[in-house]
């Protein structure tokens, strides 16, 4: 037991001594390398040498996409490495100490910027970032940024659009002969760097957008007499359209179809025609409410109205066309009844096809047959004359004069009845004709609505 206690005490003392030695070595390294160091001087031994910087960019998350203002907010992870020739030491002189941690305000840093940024914020737990420094002068700096970048939106296919947003990394003060930026790893689409899944360039997506492409190339840009090294990244964001399909597109299509069906349903021709216009106007009001809901969400760009706005306007136009056609049908139907218009030949053809079994006895043949029956009932040569007593022939002339009076009254009544029956028959012809027009317009407008929806959204 005592032997184990001494062994444990021995290892504890040894651990403390090693920690103190390593801590002292790191402090000695810091004192040695920063003795005559100037952080404002480019870290090359000769002025004509070019400093090469390796840069790695990873998109940790897509925070938001603002279509009206045309900018995207990313959460970015960056890694940049370079060699500072002034910050080197021999590990043998410091008991094998090969790496130290330094703060970003102690050493020279390249002025690397996101050139198309609107606003940028560094995310760090401390005021200064800690940087890895190796004995050969190799520096590795990791940064986490919240960047709001400008992105010109192509809104023509909204909400089935794919946005290509650039991320431009460049130098501000140093030209191409002084500093050159390189991709730390080749950017091949969404494939992980070096084939390691833990080093994917895109680590998270937005709830409305998914990343479909990511590229990066090294570019040399010329500004005036000087050339500058830049890295041009491009990220493709494809919108998930499910929200707009189920909230806007399908309700708009169904409302327009119900509007057409309600306006041109033939079963409500007689007493409810005036209500059809009210139905159409109510539908237009609902369409305007839907358009107002998505108006603030639709991006505004030089391409004009997006696909979603065009679709809603077409739906409103179809409803308006249905209301106008229904109004004309109401006007012509009302005037055909009040002004006793004679139906054209094609109206009789349509009514003959559709009312041959249910013309309700108002055809001209029925009118002639009714007239013949009436003459038979009141003719002087009929049964009324047969009941007259042959012995009272003197009353024949009186009865004949009375029959003539009745016959005149009957003929006048028959004429009025015939006019009423002809009027009812014409009304039936016009009613059948406008029923047919309603049915034809119902089918045509439903087909037009479906065809336009398929062409625009197919």
UniProtKB/TrEMBL annotation:
<feature type="transmembrane region" description="Helical">
    <location>
        <begin position="428"/>
        <end position="457"/>
    </location>
</feature>
<feature type="transmembrane region" description="Helical">
    <location>
        <begin position="277"/>
        <end position="295"/>
    </location>
</feature>
<feature type="signal peptide">
    <location>
        <begin position="1"/>
        <end position="23"/>
    </location>
</feature>
<keyword id="KW-0732">Signal</keyword>
<dbReference type="InterPro" id="IPR006029">
    <property type="entry name" value="Neurotrans-gated_channel_TM"/>
</dbReference>
<feature type="transmembrane region" description="Helical">
    <location>
        <begin position="242"/>
        <end position="265"/>
    </location>
</feature>
<dbReference type="GO" id="GO:0004888">
    <property type="term" value="F:transmembrane signaling receptor activity"/>
</dbReference>
<dbReference type="InterPro" id="IPR006201">
    <property type="entry name" value="Neur_channel"/>
</dbReference>
<keyword id="KW-1133">Transmembrane helix</keyword>
<keyword id="KW-0407">Ion channel</keyword>
<dbReference type="InterPro" id="IPR036719">
    <property type="entry name" value="Neuro-gated_channel_TM_sf"/>
</dbReference>
<feature type="domain" description="Neurotransmitter-gated ion-channel transmembrane">
    <location>
        <begin position="249"/>
        <end position="346"/>
    </location>
</feature>
<feature type="domain" description="Neurotransmitter-gated ion-channel ligand-binding">
    <location>
        <begin position="27"/>
        <end position="241"/>
    </location>
</feature>
<dbReference type="Pfam" id="PF02932">
    <property type="entry name" value="Neur_chan_memb"/>
</dbReference>
<feature type="transmembrane region" description="Helical">
    <location>
        <begin position="307"/>
        <end position="332"/>
    </location>
</feature>
<dbReference type="InterPro" id="IPR018000">
    <property type="entry name" value="Neurotransmitter_ion_chnl_CS"/>
</dbReference>
<dbReference type="GO" id="GO:0005230">
    <property type="term" value="F:extracellular ligand-gated monoatomic ion channel activity"/>
</dbReference>
<keyword id="KW-0813">Transport</keyword>
<comment type="similarity">
    <text>Belongs to the ligand-gated ion channel (TC 1.A.9) family.</text>
</comment>
<protein>
    <submittedName>
        <fullName>Neurotransmitter-gated ion-channel ligand-binding domain-containing protein</fullName>
    </submittedName>
</protein>
<dbReference type="InterPro" id="IPR006202">
    <property type="entry name" value="Neur_chan_lig-bd"/>
</dbReference>
<keyword id="KW-0472">Membrane</keyword>
<dbReference type="Pfam" id="PF02931">
    <property type="entry name" value="Neur_chan_LBD"/>
</dbReference>
<keyword id="KW-0812">Transmembrane</keyword>
<dbReference type="InterPro" id="IPR038050">
    <property type="entry name" value="Neuro_actylchol_rec"/>
</dbReference>
<keyword id="KW-0406">Ion transport</keyword>
<dbReference type="GO" id="GO:0016020">
    <property type="term" value="C:membrane"/>
</dbReference>
<dbReference type="InterPro" id="IPR036734">
    <property type="entry name" value="Neur_chan_lig-bd_sf"/>
</dbReference>
């Amino acid at each position: 037991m005592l032997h184990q206690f001494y062994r444990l005490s021995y290892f504890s003392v040894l651990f403390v001594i090693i920690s103190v030695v390593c801590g002292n070595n790191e402090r000695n390294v810091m004192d040695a390398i920063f003795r005559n160091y100037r952080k404002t001087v480019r870290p090359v031994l000769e002025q004509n040498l070019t400093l090469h910087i390796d840069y790695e960019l990873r998109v940790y998350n897509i925070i938001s996409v603002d279509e009206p203002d045309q900018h995207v907010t990313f959460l970015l992870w960056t890694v940049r490495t370079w060699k500072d020739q002034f910050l080197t030491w021999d590990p043998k002189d410091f008991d094998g100490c090969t790496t130290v941690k330094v703060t970003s305000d102690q050493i020279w840093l390249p002025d690397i910027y996101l050139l198309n940024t609107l606003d940028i914020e560094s995310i760090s737990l401390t005021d200064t970032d800690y940087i890895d420094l190796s004995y050969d002068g190799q520096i590795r700096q990791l940064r986490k940024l919240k960047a709001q970048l400008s992105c010109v939106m192509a809104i023509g296919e909204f909400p089935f659009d794919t946005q290509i947003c650039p991320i431009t990394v460049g130098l501000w003060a140093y030209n191409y002969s002084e500093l050159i930026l390189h991709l730390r790893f080749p950017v091949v689409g969404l494939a992980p760097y070096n084939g390691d899944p833990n080093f994917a360039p895109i680590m998270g997506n937005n709830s409305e957008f998914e990343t479909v492409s990511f590229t990066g190339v090294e570019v040399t840009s010329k500004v005036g007499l000087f050339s500058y090294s830049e890295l041009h990244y491009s990220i493709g964001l494809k919108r998930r359209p499910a929200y707009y399909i189920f909230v806007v597109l399908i309700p708009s299509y169904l409302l327009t179809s119900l509007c057409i069906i309600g306006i041109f349903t033939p079963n409500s021709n007689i007493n409810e025609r005036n209500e059809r216009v009210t139905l159409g106007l109510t539908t237009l009001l609902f369409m305007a409410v839907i358009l107002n809901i998505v108006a603030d969400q639709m991006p505004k760009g030089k391409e004009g109205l997006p696909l979603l706005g065009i679709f809603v306007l077409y739906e409103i136009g179809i409803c308006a066309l249905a209301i106008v056609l229904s109004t004309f049908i109401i006007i012509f139907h009302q005037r055909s009844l009040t002004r006793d218009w004679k139906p054209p030949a094609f109206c009789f053809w349509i009514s003959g096809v559709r009312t041959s079994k249910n013309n309700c006895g108002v055809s001209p043949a029925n009118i002639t047959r009714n007239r013949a029956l009436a003459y038979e009932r009141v003719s002087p040569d009929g049964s009324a004359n047969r009941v007259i007593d042959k012995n009272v022939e003197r009353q024949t002339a009186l009865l004949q004069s009375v029959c003539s009076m009745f016959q005149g009254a009957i003929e006048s009544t028959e004429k009025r009845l015939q006019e009423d029956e002809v009027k009812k028959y014409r009304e039936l012809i016009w009613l059948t004709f406008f029923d047919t027009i309603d049915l034809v317009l119902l089918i045509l407008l439903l087909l037009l609505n479906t065809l336009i929806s398929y062409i625009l959204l197919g």
